[in-house]
Structure prediction request, 181 residues.
Amino acid sequence: MTQNFVEPASEEVDKLSTRLDKDAKQGGYNLNPDADFVRGLIKGLLINEKRYGYRACPCRLASGDKSEDLDLICPCDYRDADVTEFGACYCALYVSKVVLLGKQELSSIPERRLPAEEKEKLRQKQKATADVLGADIAKVAFKLSLPVWRCTVCGYLCAREAPPEICPICKVGKERFERFI
Prediction:
C-alpha cells in the first residue's frame, strides 16, 4: 500500500526553517541563501519525518529503518566533510561562508555514503575487531579512525577530517584548532 503525504503547511515549514537557521548559525554553519530552494528541502525533511518518523535527507533514498539510516538524518554524518571540501553538503541545505558570500559557486557533490555491500563488510570487520579486542575498545579504535581536533580556546573536541570553520561552542575560527590525536 502506497502512502500519500500532504504537503507540509506553510507555518510548519516556516517554523522548521527558523529553527534550522538558528541552529546552523549557533553551530557555525549557514543555510543556503536561496530561500525557495531551502523551503523545498525543508518540505522534503518534513515529509520524510511523517513517512519514516525521522528527518532523513530528502536528497537520498532512506530505507525506513532508522538504525540503517542514522547517517542520513539531517544534519547527516557527511555534512561537515562536504561543506569543508565542496562548500555545501550533499543536498546543499548547508553551505560554507564563501558560498554564502558568493565567492564560490556550488557544484555537484559526490556521494560519501558507502554502498550496502561495503557497509556490511565494514560491520563484519568491526565485529571481528570487537571479538578480538572487546566491544568497548573496538568502538574507540574505529571512532579514532579520524583525527581529533581541539579548540585551543574552549577545549571543544571533534573527530573529523579537518577542524570546523567555526567552533560551535565559543565561535572562534578554525585557525584556533589544533590536532589533538
